[in-house]
Amino acid sequence: MEMLNLFRSAIAANNRERLADLLEEVQAFDQARLLLDLTTDERQVIYGLLGPEMLADILQELDYDEQLPVVEELGVKRFTQVLNEMSSDDAADLLGSFKETLAEKYLGMMRREDADDVRELLAYPEETAGGLMTTEYVAIKKASTVKETIESLRLIAPDAETIYYIYVTNNKNQLAGVLSLRDLIVAGPGETIGSIMSEKVVSVPVTMDQEEVAAVIDKYDFLAVPVINDDNVLLGIVTVDDVLDVLKEEATEDIGQLSAIRKIDELEVS
Ligand code: ATP
Ligand code: MG
What topology is assigned to 139-240 in CATH? Predict the structure, then answer.
């Protein structure tokens, strides 16, 4: 509440520097909550202030029904820039809810490589591993050394959904091993990935139902699980935060059913 008032007065005073400072102080999730409490006009000031990366982070924190008005307010050009910066899975979820012609329009305006990732994900049914996964994972070759891998992580990290697991693939992009960032850091710089990776990789098929995917992650206590096709080709990863959303949806459905049952009971009593 306090923060909201500080925000409002900075907007009213058109004090952009102060606003930028205030925004810096809070997490994307809290920025998103603040944004929803503002008026449309006040939000426009924020949109003008933030770059597409920060706007993408904020949009990803909103539920679907909260995203739509923000999308509308951003306008076509700005929203397209934001789409380019969103995780491919979040962008696909959002565009997947649009009419096909509208989704195509945005995909056509997006950066080619980002649009290709999103198009690929849109092809998978929503409630499967494919519909849940992101294509922003870290994969390297067996022959790389630890030192080389740490160097390439510096380049890949900003765009990867998580860098905690590093997947090892062969020349056909088939999944051959896995290691954690911890495994990498404690190894000597000259060791090869092949010598420190684990070959016993738990993966899920792209067609697996999302609730089963959640159960796999829960069972092994992983932060993410790789998604493969019938040829063991690595297609993406499902991260624990996406699985939490699935479990939350499920719980809400169950609670919904419970209250429906209670209503029926009450009707029968009266
Ligand atoms: P530990 O639990 O051993 O202390 P950690 O807490 O750093 O390690 P965890 O997330 O628990 O990391 O992962 C433990 C191990 O599981 C890591 O060595 C990692 O390589 C491995 N691992 C990660 N993903 C998979 C997977 N999909 N299949 C098999 N092993 C995996
Ligand atoms: Mg552990």
Answer: CBS-domain (3.10.580)
